[in-house]
């Protein structure tokens, strides 16, 4: 493995582990710096011990480069490769094998850490048939949410990329904020033009339960909403965050009625919804989307964690929308919106 490939592989494995962003960034920046130098210059600097003179290359990344140039597997990479991803139960592994894609991911257009092509390439490597690109909407300024104009520009980029990626497909999409009144934070016409719309609450998470219930039901009933994202907003690691309060039976009942899928958010710090709520969603007949909410390529491997959640809660495999082929998924996202507007799907 060449030095830049080794650096990128380390970054990927760190992402899979959920390592701090600064660590991942150090290896990705070093890979860019090494690419810009070219093999000859890189080898010359390595032989003279001057790699750290290059901006973007530090002591650890210089050691990785030098070890790769010498023809061996860098020791840091070998150590990470010995730490496999979390093993799955047999039932979760079978469900994971049925999944064809991921309906919730982010790029560096909002708060993700990698360009769209890198996210797509990682999805292809994992055997995905598609990935939905769902960067944030404008109200979430801390995440560099996309204005209508930026989203239109992104659609053009995705269309160009898809020409060279077929049969793999990047589905157009957005993670759109559910505003306090239940409306969605993006132009209606644009939402209607997207392949996948994930609607999520990101603000006023401590709203009183009756108001939060009305807010979420209104969003679920919006004809553009395809998936209800990380419905409780809880965080189960670090300082943690308690789940939002709402009438789950009313919200999931609205999901079942409208055909809006309930997301199983596979991020280790979210694992949302909790098992009791996920069981309720399954009992009420909700469709489910098992998603990673990936903000980096290595995080796309977290789908298995969501599969484990689904199995533990008794979610029927046939109700998982991203186990469907791309054409069926797109028929579903288009069709249930039409039905909710009073037309014929």
CATH superfamily of the largest domain, by name, is: Metal-dependent hydrolases
Low-confidence parts: 341-345
Corresponding CATH architecture of the largest domain: Alpha-Beta Barrel
CATH-defined fold name of the largest domain: TIM Barrel
Query: Which CATH C-level class of the largest domain is it?
Result: Alpha Beta
Describe the overall structure:
- The chain is of the alpha/beta class and 345 residues long.
- It has two domains: 3-81, DNA polymerase, domain 1; 90-340, Metal-dependent hydrolases (TIM Barrel, Alpha-Beta Barrel).
- Helices cover 47% and strands 10% of the residues.
- The chain has helices spanning 3-17, 21-37, 39-47, 59-69, 75-81, 90-98, 116-125, 148-165, 188-193, 209-221, 248-258, 275-283, 303-313, 326-340, and strands at 101-105, 130-133, 169-177, 196-200, 227-228, 261-265, 288-291.
- Strands 1-2-3-4-5-6-7 form a seven-stranded parallel beta sheet.
- Helix 1 (3-17) runs antiparallel to helix 2 (21-37) and helix 1 (3-17) packs across helix 4.
- The chain is elongated and about 65 Å long.
What is the compact description of this entry?
The protein is elongated. It has 345 residues and is of the alpha/beta class. It is 47% helix and 10% strand.
Describe the protein's topology.
Layout: H1 3-17, H2 21-37, H3 39-47, H4 59-69, H5 75-81, H6 90-98, E1 101-105, H7 116-125, E2 130-133, H8 148-165, E3 169-177, H9 188-193, E4 196-200, H10 209-221, E5 227-228, H11 248-258, E6 261-265, H12 275-283, E7 288-291, H13 303-313, H14 326-340
Parallel strand pairs: 1-2, 2-3, 3-4, 4-5, 5-6, 6-7
């Amino acid at each position: 493995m060449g030095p830049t490939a080794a650096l990128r592989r380390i970054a990927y494995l760190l992402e899979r582990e959920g390592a701090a962003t600064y660590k991942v960034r150090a290896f990705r920046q070093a890979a860019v710096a090494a690419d810009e130098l070219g093999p000859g210059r890189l080898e010359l600097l390595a032989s003279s011990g001057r790699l750290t003179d290059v901006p973007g290359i530090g002591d650890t990344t210089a050691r990785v480069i030098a070890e790769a140039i010498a023809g061996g597997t860098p020791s840091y990479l070998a150590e990470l490769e010995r730490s496999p991803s979390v093993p799955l139960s047999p039932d979760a592994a079978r469900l994971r094998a049925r999944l064809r894609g991921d309906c919730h991911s982010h790029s560096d257009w909002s708060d993700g850490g990698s360009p769209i092509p890198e996210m797509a390439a990682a999805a292809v490597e994992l055997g995905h048939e598609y990935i939905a690109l769902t960067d944030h909407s404008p109200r979430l300024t801390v995440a560099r949410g996309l204005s209508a104009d930026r989203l239109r520009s992104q659609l053009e980029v995705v269309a160009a990329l898809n020409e060279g990626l077929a049969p793999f497909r990047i589905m157009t999409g957005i993670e759109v904020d559910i505003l306090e009144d239940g409306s969605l934070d993006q132009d209606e016409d644009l939402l209607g033009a997207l392949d996948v719309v994930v609607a999520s609450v990101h603000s006023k998470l401590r709203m009183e339960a009756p108001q939060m219930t009305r807010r979420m039901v209104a969003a679920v009933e919006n004809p553009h909403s395809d998936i209800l994202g990380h419905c409780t907003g809880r965080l189960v690691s670090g300082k943690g965050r308690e789940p939002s309060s709402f009438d789950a039976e009313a919200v999931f009942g609205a999901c079942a009625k409208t055909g809006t899928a309930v997301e199983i958010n596979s991020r280790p710090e979210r694992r949302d919804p909790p098992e009791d709520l996920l069981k309720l969603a399954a009992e009420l007949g909700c469709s489910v989307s098992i998603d990673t909410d990936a903000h980096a390529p290595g995080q796309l491997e977290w789908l298995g964690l969501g599969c484990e959640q689904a199995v533990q809660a008794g979610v029927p495999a046939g109700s998982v929308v991203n186990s469907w082929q791309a054409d069926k998924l797109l028929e579903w996202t288009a069709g249930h919106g039409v039905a909710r507007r009073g037309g014929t799907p």
